[in-house]
Structure formats: structure tokens, C-alpha cells
Amino acid sequence: MRNRKRSYNFISVILVFLMVSIWFYFDQEQQTKSIQIGVSLYLENDTFVEKILSAMEQEALNYEEETGVNVILNVSVANGSQRTQNEQVKRYVEMGYDAICVNLVDRTNAAAIVDLGVFEGEDVPIVFFNREPVAEDIMRRDMVYYVGSDAKQSAVLQGQAVVECYQNYPKLMDKNGDGVLQYVMLEGEMGHQDAIMRSDYSLQTIVNMGVPLHKLASETADWNRKRASDLMEQWIESYGDDIELVLCNNDDMALGALDILSKTSIKAAVFGIDATDVGIQALDEGALWATVDCNSKEQGQAVLRIAADLAMKGSLSDKLELTQQRYVRVPLIKKISTSLG
Question: How far is Cα 74 from Cα 41, in angstroms, rounded to an integer?
């Protein structure tokens, strides 16, 4: 009887040991679990997109600290080719990545990428950011989201900044005193939704608030500082000191205009959008009159959180505020230089 009791005790010890070992194994597996997130950028050296990417990388570290899950980001650049971007996404899917974040080359061509995310009967989460696809493509299947700012709102805020500066510094802005602001405009990509909205609603806001405008010239500079410099140089040759206002769809183009203006005696009020680090520096120095903070940090945080949550749980955290079920719109802030006048 005593031997049988000892046998039962020995078996109990073995069972407890096995249970603890199994629990420890799965606990370690959970702690060392990794998720792979592929990121495809439309172009290299886009200042604002680089800020979003930096915010994503920092948020990946935060996510690791909170959850114990290793987040591996693999970043590729499409160099302006939609075909290349499609191939990058396809490769991520075939390699078994847990989620994919895409900064689109062509916002009208998102359907192909959305469809690529369906692999062997499973939906791979896709988070578009910064360059917004058409709504039909976002809703094409589940597990597809967009993070970005409201292009119309950024334009309205830029227009309001122009009017506010005009009210405070009328003689500085209206150099010839005719009551009309002669302007040139540096636009983003041809046909790009954000460029169109940033251009149209900025002008509309200024006029609706009672400040007359006269257009001297406008041209697309592809969000690029060097291209903006080249255009500004041409316009100065053509219009010289008649240029009173320079409206720019982003800070990089605004800085391109300032690069040329700084080499001349011509004074013009330059306005941007994005609040990049170099843009804020120019704002603090009084070279850039105003910009609109499109909140790159919060964009990057939201992109990473959506991708990681979907990869881990297949659902989103309650902390994320969605509009229209699939969109995260970050708040925007108007910033006017305090070094004017």
C-alpha cells in the first residue's frame, strides 16, 4: 500500500513538472514572438514621408516594450514606379509577412495591391498611408486601412494663415499697395488629389475671406525642392518684384522657393504645408511665413499600431479613432512665424 502511494506521488510530481515545462515553453514563445511588417515607399528622400517612417520605427520599439513582441520592419523604395511597388508588395506577401504598409506611387492603382494581399485564402493586412487611394479600393476587402491628414483642411488652414498674416502685415505683403496679392503657386504632382485640393481650397479660402488675388504663374514641382527652385528662378526672371505671395503645396517646395529668393533682394511671403523639421527651422527664422503641421508623428504611430494589431490579433485597439470604418485622420495645426515684421 505504501509503495503504491509513493508511485502516485512520483507520477504527480512528473505531471506537475510537465505542466510547468509546457507553460514555460508557451510563455517563452509568446515573449519572443516576432511579426514582420513590410513597408513600401513611393520615393526616396521625401522629407515628410521620412518623418512618418521615423515615427513608425520609434513606435515599433514602443510596441515591443509593451507586448514583448519583436517588430521587424523591412523598408523598400519604389522610386516612382508603380510596377516596382507592386512587385515589392507581392514579394512581402509571398515571404509570409504579417502586414504591409504602402505609401502609394499611384493613388488610382491601389486595387492591384489590395488584391495581392489575398494569398492562399488568407487576407494579409494592408495599411496605406500619406497618399490616399480611392475609396472603392480601400473597401475592396477586409483588413485594408488608410492613415493620413485631410488635404482640404490643410489647404483651408494655409489660406487662413495667409489672411491672418495679411491682416497683421498688409504693407509687407501687398508691396505695391494695390489691395491685391500677386501670387505664384508651386503645386505637387499633376493630377494628385492632395495637390489639387491643397491648391484649390487654399485659394478659395483666401478669396472667401475677402483678400483679392491675382495669379502670375503656377506649375507642378512634384513636391521637390530642386524642381521648385528651378521654377522660382524662372518666375523671378519673368515677374521680379511683382511676386508678393508664394503658395506651396508642401514645405520642401517652399524651401526651394526660399533658396532662390535668398539670393535676390526680392521679398515675398512664402507659405508651406507639412511642418517638416527644416520647414519649422525656416519658420523660426522668419523666412517661411507659415506652414501647417500635418502631424507626421501621429501618422507614423497610427500606421504601425494598425499593422501590428492586425498582425497579432486580427482586430484593432479601441484607442484608435476611425472615421468611415477604415480611416485614421490625424489633427492638423496652423503654424505662423513669430519672427515676421
Answer: 11
- Residue by residue, DSSP assigns 63-86 as HHHHH--EEEEEEEE-TT-HHHHH
pLDDT of residue 118: 86
Per the DSSP assignment, residues forming a β-bridge with 218 are 185
In the block, cell 492638423 appears at: 332
Sign of CA dihedral 271, 277, 282, 285: positive
Q: Which residue ranges in the chain fall short of pLDDT 50?
A: 1-2, 4-18, 20-31
The pTM of the full predicted model, rounded to 2 decimals, is 0.86
User: Distance between alpha carbon 210 and the CA centroid of its chain, in Å?
Assistant: 32
Q: What single-letter amino acid sits at 306?
A: I
Which letter, b or e, does each residue of 105-137 get, where b requires 16 or more Cβ atoms within 10 Å of its Cβ? bbbebbeebbebbeeeeeebbbbbbbbbbeeeb
- Is the distance from CB of 234 to CB of 186 less than 8 angstroms? no
CB atoms within 10 A of CB 4: 8
Q: What is the pLDDT of residue 122?
A: 79
Whose CA is closest to 190, among 203, 202, 199? Answer: 199
